[in-house]
Amino acid sequence: MARAVWKGPFVEESLMKKVDKYKDDPKKIPIRTWSRKSTILPDFVGVSFQIYNGKKFIPITVSEDMVGHKMGEFAPTRTFFGHTPADKKAKPATVDKK
After folding, report:
1. What is the model's pLDDT at position 2?
2. Which residues pair with 52 in a beta bridge?
3. Helix, strand or coil for residue 79?
4. Residues 62, 44: contact at Cβ < 8 Å?
């Protein structure tokens, strides 16, 4: 279910403070965040984030296309290794006899 329009987008207050500091800081060190549920606002365009996926921080630089999406959408939590080939399932297990 989507968030009510009258409430506006959800963004952690601490994250907003960090973005404001980032814009004034000449070093431009990426902002580390655990807030995957925060919505990306137009103010975030051009800001570098490191979003935690449960194991490591994924580096992201926000572009205009990302506005309106959640932070967590750009840091996948699961790694897909591909489907096993059908040949592996069809072959019976062989036992080496010595």
Report:
1. 82
2. 57
3. coil
4. yes
